[in-house]
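Submission checklist for the structure archive. All mandatory fields must be present; incomplete records are returned to the submitter.

[x] Identifier: Neutral zinc metallopeptidase
[x] Organism: Streptomonospora nanhaiensis
[x] Residue count: 337
[x] Sequence attached
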Amino acid sequence: MYAGFGESPRSAPPGQARRADRRALGMVTALVVVLLALAMLSWTTVSEEASGSGAAPEGGGDGSAPDTDFDDKPGQSPSGDAAATGLADPFGQRESPSGHEALVANPLYGTGRLSPRPCPAPGLDVDDTESMKGFLDSVADCLDDAWATQFARAGIPFTPPERVFWDEPGVSPCRPYPSQAGAFYCRASTSIYIGTADVVEKWNGATRPVVYASLLAHEYGHHVQGESGLLEYYHEQRQLEEDPLERNAWTRRSELQANCLSGAFLASVRVSFPLDEDDFEAVLGDARATADREDGGEEERTHGSADNSVHWTSRGWEEQTPAACNTWDLDDETLVH
């Protein structure tokens, strides 16, 4: 007789065999239930630990309070934002770099050229607030797309900045506005602030759209620095300097890098925007105009000389890569004066 697992020399009584089968089935069922319960408990514990590790981001040194020395410090304060802590993605995304590596060997430097992308600029009436806001939002959308792509290539977490394109006075975590600067980036709120009428006045009524696209792309460059882990280390090291001139040296490198990142972005949209040679010259003219004054004192030199401002903007435009914008590891230190 076939009993399921081989023949037995003796046949058990039918009732006894059925009871044995039921006991075996019951034991197997109980064992399966126990194993499933243990698996669920293990999965829940791991999930709770993973979500809890990023629940409370570290606060920056002065991320909760305005920085009074704001006009010569990109980003204004170290980040207290959760996105900037660089929490690793469970599917292999690396953490944002930190320390000196974030400056000189940032993974973002290895992401290659910014890909050409469609970014047709809407018409711009600089005297109309809604037109300015619409234009800036359109360019910011392109910046979000461009830099999200580069960060994805680097495997670094990235969150686009908030936008505050204002026409009424207000207060950011970094400073009130209007201020000496018509546009600024505040790391404490990961936001770009631009006065829609203020910048037109400060830029002497310029009507060429690329001037305002370049300004926005520069401030966005500081956000790129923040998201890549660079800006936090920059602030830490800058604040350790007792000599104001040494602090200025740190600031110049950051500002010149933002110029370069702006140039790289503008080059990536020059076909679809579109931008011609006259636009490029306007961008370089703006780089000269926003550089340090030749007759200014050393204590005022925070943005680089006119020649260096033009150099780094051109370098970004021509090479179109984040690697071209590494102002922190140079053989020729005169390029950041």
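[x] Structure attached
Curator remark: Residues 1-26, 28-72, 78-92 have pLDDT under 50 and may be disordered. Residues 82-336 form one domain.
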